[in-house]
Amino acid sequence: MPRNPLASMPSFDRCELTLAEFEDAADAAVARIPPELARAMTNVAIFIEERYIPRANEDPQTSLLGLYEGTPLTERDAWWAAGSLPDRITLYRQAIQDSCLSREEVINEITVTVVHEIAHHFGLDDKRLHALGWG
Ligand SMILES: [Zn+2]
Questions:
Q1: Looking at the domain covering 13-132, what would its CATH class be?
Q2: Ligand 1 centre distance from Cα of residue 4 (Å)
Q3: Distance from the CA of 11 to the center of ligand 1, in angstroms?
Q4: CA 75 – ligand 1 centroid, Å
Q5: What distance in angstroms lies between residue 118's CA and the mean position of ligand 1's atoms?
Q6: φ and ψ at 94, to 5 degrees?
Q7: Alpha carbon distance 3, 119 (integer Å)
Q8: What is the DSSP letter of 86?
Q9: Residue ranges of the chain with pLDDT lower than 70?
Q10: What separation in Å is there between the alpha carbon of 24 and the centre of ligand 1?
Q11: Torsion over CA of 86, 109, 17 and 88, rounded to 10 degrees?
C-alpha cells in the first residue's frame, strides 16, 4: 500500500469534511441527543461557523468548539417575551475538525458539544458541566 508522505505531519491529522458533509454530521449528532433533552430544546437554533473569533477582551488564542448565546431557561421571566430572538448554539466547524480524525469522531464531538451547549440553555455553568463530564 503506498504511504502518504504527509501522513506523519501533524497538521494533516485532521478530519476534512465539506460543509455539506459537516452539516450532515451535525444532523446525525442532533439525532443522537436523548429525546427528553431534544424535546426540551425550545427556541434554540443551531448555526455553523468556521472558527470562533476571540473578542477584544479575550486571549487571542481562544479556540472554541461551540458557543451558547441566549437567555437560559432558568433566567427567563416575565420580560422574556415569546417574541424574543431564539437562543443560538454555534458550532465551529474547523476547530471541531482539528480535533477529530474521522467523520465518526466529528459526530461524537458535535454531540458532546451540542449537549454541553444545551446544558447552558438549562442554566448549568461550565464548572458544573465539567464536574458531570460534559466539559
Ligand atoms: Zn460551556
A1: alpha beta
A2: 37
A3: 26
A4: 17
A5: 9
A6: -65, -40
A7: 43
A8: P
A9: 1-12, 78-83
A10: 23
A11: 10
Question: What whole-number distance in Å separates Cα of residue 128 and Cα of residue 9?
Answer: 37
Ligand 1 centroid distance, CA of 82 (Å): 25
Tracing cell 425550545 back to the chain, one arrives at 42
All three cell numbers of 47, joined, read: 448555526
Domain ranges for the chain, please list them: 13-132
pLDDT for position 81: 66
Please tell me the distance between residue 117's alpha carbon and the centre of ligand 1 in angstroms. Answer: 6
| Residue 28 CB neighbour total at 10 angstroms | 15
Output the CA 81–ligand 1 centroid distance in Å: 25
* Other beta carbons less than 10 A from residue 38's beta carbon: 13
Residue 48: strand pairing partners: 91
Per-residue confidence (pLDDT) for residue 113, from 0 to 100: 92
